[in-house]
């Protein structure tokens, strides 16, 4: 132990104690920052040549009530109930310490029910969903005064059985059209908090559904939220996920009133184990166009 009596000045004592503390910090296991693991799908966290695999399951439910004119004529409401059960398959690969490649798809089942109080119609679809691939690139590293900036680009191929965008009662496992998206995300840590916010744009190509050509409305996307590092192995996170969708086009004609705000709140707990990462989550729809509730869990190796 260093004592003041061994030194002739306060300066010598301060220098000696500082060196002693530094030597002590060289021993023992260095703490690893794992608080950003909840952002692993949108930020390049992998080393060059490192890979991760995701396997998950999710269930979502949504209810819509729309007006309808029955024979008579009689005004009534139709209730749409949509239930989806999916398994999630995904991967990520560190091309460089700044560039991360990713891909994902889903395999599952969807059921829709439509009722007006007099009749009940059901539709079911199952199989593989759309195939998504893209990359995240770290433009600027985080500093004390500046957040990290990440650019993301992705495309989605319509490999699944597409749902008709203007027929809510139609079941399907995919969008039925190609999509392209680009986003900018910023991340800043204030230990034990990690803040993130970003915005982007998604373009939807035109697709054929029966005898019609339909183009879902492009969307402006935004998100912001935070992660709280409870300890070295557990992070709790909350994120507001939003988008503003433009009007859908039917045979090159815009459909009035099909633009909408789609906003949901995502809550998750990311738990890091020696063998994998476990992340249970739940999404709550805030606006009518967002699914009412989605819950699931993802395992990462």
Can you describe this structure in just a few lines?
The protein is mostly beta strands and 301 residues long. The protein is built from 1 helix and 17 strands.
Features of this protein?
2 domains, 17 strands, Porin, elongated, twelve-stranded antiparallel beta barrel, mainly beta, 301 residues, 5% helix, four-stranded antiparallel sheet
Mean pLDDT: 89
Strand order of the largest sheet: 1-2-3-5-6-7-8-11-12-15-16-17
Which CATH architecture of the largest domain? Beta Barrel
What's the gyration radius in Å?
25 Å
What portion of the residues fall into strands of 2 or more residues? over 45%
Order of helices and strands: HEEEEEEEEEEEEEEEEE
Shape: elongated
CATH domain fold name of the largest domain: Porin
The share of residues in helices is under 10%
* Straight-line distance between termini: 45 Å
Counted by DSSP, the helix tally is 1
Assigned CATH superfamily of the largest domain: monomeric porin ompg
**Total discrete domains:** 2
């Amino acid at each position: 132990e260093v004592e003041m009596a061994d030194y002739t000045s306060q300066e010598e004592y301060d220098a000696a104690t500082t060196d002693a503390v530094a030597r002590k910090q060289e021993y023992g296991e260095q703490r690893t920052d794992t608080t950003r693991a909840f952002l692993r799908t949108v930020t390049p966290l992998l080393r060059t040549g490192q890979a991760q695999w995701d396997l998950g399951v999710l269930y979502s439910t949504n209810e819509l009530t729309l007006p309808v004119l029955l024979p008579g004529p009689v005004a009534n409401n139709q209730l749409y109930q949509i239930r989806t059960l999916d398994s999630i398959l995904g991967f990520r690969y560190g091309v460089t310490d700044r560039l991360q490649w990713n891909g994902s798809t889903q395999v599952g089942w969807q059921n829709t029910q439509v009722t007006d109080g007099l009749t009940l119609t059901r539709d079911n679809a199952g199989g593989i969903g759309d195939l998504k691939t893209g990359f995240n690139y770290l433009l600027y590293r985080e500093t004390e005064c500046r957040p990290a900036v990440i650019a993301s680009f992705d495309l989605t191929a319509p490999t699944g059985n597409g749902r008709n965008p203007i027929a809510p009662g139609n079941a399907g496992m995919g969008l039925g059209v190609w999509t392209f998206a680009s986003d900018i995300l910023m991340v800043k840590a204030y230990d034990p908090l990690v803040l993130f916010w970003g915005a982007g744009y998604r373009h939807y190509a035109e697709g054929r559904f029966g005898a019609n050509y339909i183009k879902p409305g492009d969307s402006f996307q935004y998100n912001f939220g935070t992660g709280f590092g409870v300890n070295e192995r557990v992070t709790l996170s909350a994120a507001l996920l939003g988008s503003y969708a433009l009007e859908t086009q039917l045979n090159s004609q815009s459909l009035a009133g099909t633009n909408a705000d789609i906003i949901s709140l995502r809550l998750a707990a990311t738990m890091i184990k020696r063998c994998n990462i476990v992340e249970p989550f739940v999404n709550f729809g805030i606006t009518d166009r967002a699914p009412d509730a989605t819950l699931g869990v993802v395992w990462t190796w």
